[in-house]
Design goal:
The chain is α/β, with parallel strands linked by helices. 36% of the residues lie in helices and 15% in strands. The strands form 2 sheets. Strands 1-7-6-5-4-2-3 form a 7-stranded mixed sheet, sandwiched between helices. The protein has a 5-stranded mixed sheet with strand order 8-9-12-11-10. β2, α4 and β3 form a beta-alpha-beta unit. The site of pyridoxal-5'-phosphate has 15 residues, from α3.
């Protein structure tokens, strides 16, 4: 009988691990084999072949991820975008319609804006702060509602529980991109979401050395998405699966530290005279601080801010800092800094960015595991006249 575990810290270490251990190995080895001997499997999807997402490295991750978010099932994919696109192309078919939050990760926004039409799928963007307006956009063909726990890069916290209620009321699938929060800070299934998606490239792996994705949620939906992924082929390589598995074991200690450091840095920046605005849900000044406190166990290691003097000052500041790596992506052990207008959101037109509230001078920070005081000292020197 498989063991059950109460706390997320214990699940990170023990949930989903094979019982008994493979040849006594304390760490699940990498099964670097494309196929396994035929053992009488009766269906295509159960044939043991790497693209079919059923190697021991995949299975252990699926069980662990489901346990972390207290969900029924999970699936890993070759990237966050593989998880997102495969999910949407499973839930939606030609003629269907999606409601999606108006501020989304740039890649997701681009997929909707640039690729959906070629699949015969349509979408409307919804204001996450105004659930009353969603009904006007509902069509008989609407199948799903898609939101993000905390938006990238503005760290908005929309009324995501209203999305769950709206989905229930209208027979839609509720989907949330939970990348920014990670299962440490928010577990969507506990609040009734049907599906939670992750770029496992970020916090879940945490070491900036792979790309990977995850889909977590209701078993029946995860099974349908698995069959579609089996055909689309965006399966996670076993070596990447091994690294993701290893990285995930320290998720709780990493994310809690990053939550704490990000709050300290946000408070420092907010008080600094050269800073115009800080977006961090852990700050009392955040317009949805109360909602974030009710929903989340922590406010994440992500924040964004604008300096007085806009883009010119932002560029000067970024050049003068010594610790953060200037690079896109997030959720790693090293502090990363980027201007979303030039990286994650460069696929949007300047008008689309303006409408979404993403200025050219906005700086996004992914706080790593360096000492918060060292980061603050670095930012202080970079902000000096
Ligand atoms: N979702 C969010 C919130 C992201 O920030 C990203 C990437 O930055 C993705 C999804 C896409 O993930 P990946 O780059 O692993 O495909």
């Amino acid at each position: 009988m498989s063991r059950t575990f109460k706390s997320i810290e214990t699940k990170l270490i023990h949930a989903g691990e094979p019982e008994p251990r493979v040849d006594g190995a304390v760490v699940l080895p990498i099964f670097q084999t494309a196929m396994f001997e035929y053992a009488g499997e009766k269906t295509y999807d159960s044939i043991r072949y790497l693209r079919l997402n059923n190697s021991p490295n995949h299975v252990a991750l699926h069980r662990k991820l489901a346990a972390l978010e207290n969900a029924e099932a999970a699936l890993v994919a070759a990237s966050g975008m593989a998880a997102i696109s495969t999910t949407l192309l499973t839930i939606l078919s030609a003629g269907d319609h999606l409601l999606a939050q108006n501020c989304l990760y740039g890649g997701t926004h681009d997929f909707l804006a640039k690729d959906f039409a070629s699949f015969g799928i349509s979408f409307d963007l919804i204001d996450p702060e105004d659930p009353d307006s969603w009904k006007r956009l509902l069509r008989p063909t609407t199948r799903a509602i898609y939101v993000e726990t905390m938006t990238n890069p503005l760290l908005q916290v929309g009324d995501i529980l209203a999305a769950v209620r709206f989905a229930r009321e209208h027979g839609l699938v509720s989907i949330v991109d939970n990348t920014f929060a990670s299962p440490i800070n928010f577990r969507p299934a506990e609040h009734g979401f049907d599906l939670s998606l992750h770029s496992a490239t970020k916090y879940l792996n945490g070491h900036s050395d792979i790309v990977a994705g995850a889909i977590i949620g209701r078993a029946e939906l995860v099974a349908r998405i698995t069959r579609r992924l089996n055909h689309l082929g965006g399966s996670l390589d076993p070596h990447a699966a091994f690294l993701l598995h290893r990285g995930m074991k320290t998720l709780a200690v990493r994310v809690r530290q990053q939550n704490e450091s990000a709050l300290k840095i946000a408070r420092f920046l907010e008080k600094h005279p050269a800073v115009e605005r800080v977006n961090y849900p852990g700050l009392e000044s955040h317009p949805r601080h109360k909602r974030a406190r009710e929903l989340f166990d922590g406010f994440s290691g992500m924040l964004s801010f604008e300096l007085k003097g806009g883009m010119t000052e932002a560029e000067r500041f970024m050049k003068r800092t010594q610790l953060p790596v200037i690079a896109p992506s997030l959720g790693g052990i090293e502090t990363l800094m980027t201007r979303p207008a030039t990286t994650s959101h460069s696929g949007m037109s300047p008008d689309e960015r303006r409408l979404a509230g993403i200025s050219d001078g906005l700086i996004r920070l992914s706080v790593g595991l360096e000492a918060a005081d060292d980061l603050i000292a670095d930012f202080a020197q970079a902000l000096e006249d």
